[in-house]
Amino acid sequence: MAKKNNERRSYTKEFKTEAVVLAEKKEKPISQVAKDLGLNENVLRRWIAQTRESAGTGINMFPGHGRARDAELIRLRKENKALRNANEILKKAAVIANLWFDAMEEPL
User: Fold this and answer.
1) Cα-to-chain-centroid distance, residue 14
2) How confident is the model at residue 10 (pLDDT cuts 50, 70, 90)?
């Protein structure tokens, strides 16, 4: 049995883009294009899907280690954190306001 190489290969954005262009020309089946480029067919299909997902959205197709939607996820997590912080500040402000109003209502 052949020993598998555990190292992951990385490809440049240009290589990925060219591979997708070749596959979308439909001159050969995707499986044959992948084989010619030394890729697994599923890898090439994933790249095609990422290209279609990011088409027209302005999101970088191949942002490095991750999928195109990861940039949006990062942005949403930052926004979520900022909103949670703002919510905590408002809760503290409400407590302080209630203490102040209670102090104003007490007779001297």
Assistant:
1) 19
2) confident
